[in-house]
Amino acid sequence: MKRFILVLLLILLSFSLALAASGKRGKTDEDANSEVSEEAAPDDDSAVAEVTEVRASHILVVTEKEAKQVKARLDRGEDFAEVAKEVSKCPSAARGGDLGFFGRGAMVPEFEKAAFALEVGEVSGPVKTQFGWHIIMVTDKKSEEQ
Questions:
Q1: Residue spans per domain, the chain
Q2: 0.90 surpassed by pTM
Q3: Which has the closest alpha carbon to 136: 118, 145, 146, 123?
Q4: N or C: which end of the chain has fewer CB within 10 A?
Q5: pLDDT digits over 17-45, tens only?
């Protein structure tokens, strides 16, 4: 039963990733306005670039213990993509964990919050979602000037 649930969760994650890879289709102007309104307004009149999309890779494992072991390996200098190919339970493992670019609202909230908070090249600690435990690395960001 646990295996069935894990497979089902991986299918749902793959579906979310496919939606993210297809871009922001289906978003209404109201969705976009609500995203902007959640961001704090700058104190001055200078142009501010808001991060609208991130490109991230991740490693998905079942337990927190496994996630901590993965993070320790990465902290010792092992290659993220190689570790992802070896241990990740996500179909993205074949691509070294690369999820491509995705915008806000494309991923589950815990994953999105962690990914958008990271700097390019930074690796997260363990992040729990309904799919399991993730180690996330942001590899690029896209911004839109306001």
A1: 2-23+50-145
A2: no
A3: 123
A4: N
A5: 444 444 444 443 444 444 433 444 444 44
